[in-house]
Each structure stands twice: as C-alpha cells, then as structure tokens.
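JOB MANIFEST
job_type = single_chain_structure
chain_count = 1
residues = 373
[input]
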Amino acid sequence: MPKGACTHVRIVVDFLKIGADYWLSIYPTVARELEHWRTRAATIPDPVLRAQALASLREKRRHAEGAAAFAVIAPRGERDDVVRFLVAFQVMYDYLDTISEDPDASDPLLDTLQLHTALTDALMPGVAQGAAYALHPHDDDGGYLDRFVETCRMICDALPAFSVVAPLARSAARLAMQSQGYNHALPVAPPGFLSDVIVPWAAKEGGDSHGLTWWEVIGATGSSLAILVLVAAAANPELEPGESDAIHDVYVPWAGAVLALIDSLIDQERDTADETHSLVGRYPSSGVAGDRVAAFVTRALALTRETAHPERHALIVASMIALFASAPAARGADARDAVKCALDAAGARGTLPLALLRARRRVSMWRSSGREA
C-alpha cells in the first residue's frame, strides 16, 4: 500500500477510535451537564440575564460539545470530572461573552474586564472570589455565575497535576479577560484607543514574537482552548512541565487563533448587521484571511508532534475546525473560501469529522422539523 494511503488509513482508524471514545464515554456526561446548566439558567431571577443565559446555551451548545473533546487525553478514571470542568468553563465563557454585549453597560471595557475576572477565579481554588457583576447593569443571577466558578475550582483542586498547568492556565485566562475587554470595547472606543492601547498590548503578547497582527493576537488570546486542554492534561498524575509547555505551544497562539478567526468568519454577516467588531473584517480580503488561517493550522499541526500524544492533539485541532466548518453559515460568501483553506490545511484529519458533523446537523434539523410538524 502506498505511504500516503497508509497514512490516510491510520488517520481514519485513529479518528474512529477517538470518536467512539467521545460518543460512548464522554458525550453522555456532556448532555447531562448541559441540561444541568440549562435548568439552572431557567431559574435566574433577572429576566435579562435569564434570557441571555438560555440563548447562549442554545446557540453555542456545540462550543461545549467541542470543548469536551479534550477529555480524550485524560485518564478514564478522571474523565467525568474533567468533562464537568470543560463543559462548565466553556458554558461560563460563552455566557460572559454574551452578557458583555449588553448595550446598557456604561463602560463596555471596564464592565467586560470585571465580568471576566470569573475566568481567573475559576482557576484559583482557595482564593477570595471577585465581584464579577460590580459594573454590570444586571446582577441578580441567583448564584448562576458563582456556581460555575465553584464547580471549576472544586475539580481543579482535585486534579493530580493541576499545580503543573496552573501558571499557564491562569495566564491564558488573564489574557482572555483582556482580549475580551478590548474586543467588546472597540466599537465604542475613543480615538487613539486602538493605536495607544491595543496595538502595544498585542505586540507585547505575541504579535512581535510570532509575527501576528493585533487582531490575530486578540483572537488567539481570547480563545478558551489553551485553558481547556491544560486542565484536561492535568488529570494525568505523571504530567511533566515540559509536556505542559508543549501542549500550550500548540494552542497559544496557533490553534486558538485558528478557531477564533474561523468563528469570526462564520459570524461576519451577523457582526456587520449588529455593528459588532469583526476580527476577520480587518483583513483586506477573504483570500488573505484564508492564507493566514491556513498558515496557523499548519503551524499548530506541526507543533503537535512535540507533544506526548501528537495524533490525538492533531485530530482534536482538525475536528474543531470541522465543527465550525459544519455550521451552515460557513458556506456563506464571506466565509466559504477561507474556511476551505483551513480545511485543506488540516488535510485528511478534517475530512471525516466534517462529513459526520454535517450529517449530524442534517439529522438534527430533520428531527426538529418533525417535532414542529
């Protein structure tokens, strides 16, 4: 059998193994945890926060499903707790992102920064929790946000190697907080804010060292991927600092930038309508966006070879690209070509997951139409 065919067969076999692992041992917990958080969200006293929480869970469900895929790198005995963390952290992240867009906020930058202190709080067991809602126009969530933080802290405290990943995970959370603040503030920022604040920050946080534009740094640092994968890796009691560093380097900035930019491509039409800042809207053309995203995919996949489980990380990165690419909006005029560039760069690893995810979406739509009928 030719070498290329052997490689393709091995990728298919590895994907099927990981896929079976995910659907049989991980997804049932994901579904249960999402229903748990949906039930909690439905009891939020403030009607604005309740509507935003439920909308975030409904519209971004697949973010949590994708986040839970990192549990495949955790030992089986630790997986339930790891999945609970991954789902809780991602649902919290999406909730914070949603409520940060509240038009009633008097200062979008400070409000978003304060809200996102919950990200770092979730990774700091035993430390006093901040007042995330201190600057927000709505705060009566019935303990919804606190419960996310408590759940994540409890699990982090129990993971055998959390102390190994904690510095990198907390650094990634602090960068995500800053990135989200800057991104949400841009549409209403005063003159000079971009050049005087964001551009120097981006240069310091990876723009200069990795040759990234300021909006690519915002995308890369605003991603939750590094936090999720590091905490999943912390379930392994034999995790060494060198392996933690190698995993971090795959996702910061490269895989994080890929997912953030693809997400921005898919949301571009909506962002334009809502007058929300679009990361990919900063590129001169969709062709340039596609070339940049493809280059980041290639770099991330190359760095997976430095990890202890290269094929697992490569398949996870490619599958997450496929997860976003399977969305109907990914076929829109603004996103189609650039998304194709990302998939081409992922190669055979992205082909099978994309086909399966598209089939799943068709089945879900068919079932939904059947219930409505």
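[summary]
The chain is about 75% helix and 0% strand.
The domain at 3-364 is CATH 1.10.600 (Farnesyl Diphosphate Synthase).
exit_status = 0
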